[in-house]
Structures are given as structure tokens and as C-alpha cells.
Write a structure and sequence with these properties.
Elements: H1 8-33, H2 43-47, H3 54-70, H4 78-102, H5 105-109, H6 116-147
Amino acid sequence: MTVADQSTPERSARAAPRLLVALASLGVFLAVFLPFLDRGTGIWVYYSASVLGPLTVGVLGVLVLLVVGAGPLTSMSPATLAGVALGGSVAMVIVAAFWALSVRHEVVLSLSRLDLFAYHRWILLGLTLVALAGAVWYAVAARGRSTA
């Protein structure tokens, strides 16, 4: 079945979870790259405190955003798109959790006078969890429609 063959209710049933995944992935991207606008914070020290860090999460966020945003315009099945979104979201959560738990508190506090950095890693982890919840919802919606 191609995208043109799908009825409007089938598409709209997957639109809300796809939008949630896209917005959460955009939020992940912004949470990773907006701190670079604040000069003199030592953000590279903060981001390199672990082997895998926020830059990896940001790249995964962009990839998930591209798949979820541009995927319905391609001939890929919704189940495949949902699977890619789910896999990318799981990878984002794993990397963000690893980094959030491994970065030392002293590194975070030495960065800046901004209190936001004390919560940055947890905000990033929360956004990845929202993306994962949306991807699970999207996968359930895509699977329900593909078996019907």
C-alpha cells in the first residue's frame, strides 16, 4: 500500500504520535545545541565529560526528526518509519542516560553561573523519554493499522 492509497483516518491516527516524536526530537536538538550560544561557559568540557555525550544524542535527534518528518512523503511503510523512530529513540535514551549518570557534578557546577546547567542533563534525558513514548505510541498506531 502506498501513501496515496491510505485513507485519511489511517493517516490521522498516526499524525499525533508522529508530531510528538518530531517535537521531542526537535527539543533534543535544541537542548544540545543552544548552550553553544552562551559563550565562555566551557561547554566543550561539559560535553566531553563522557565518551558518549549530548552531541551523539543531538545527531540521533536530528536523524529521528528527519525520518519522522520526511518519511511519510516517501514510499516507506508506516511500520518501517515507526520502527526506525523507535530504534532511534531507544538509542537517544540510552546515550542520554549514560551521559547524565556519568558526568561529574563538579564539572556541571564549574561551567557557568547559569543554574540551567545544573538541570540540563536531566532536561535532555526527559526530552529523550518523551520522544521514546511518542515512538512507542507511533509504533502501536502503525502496527494496529498494518494488521487491520
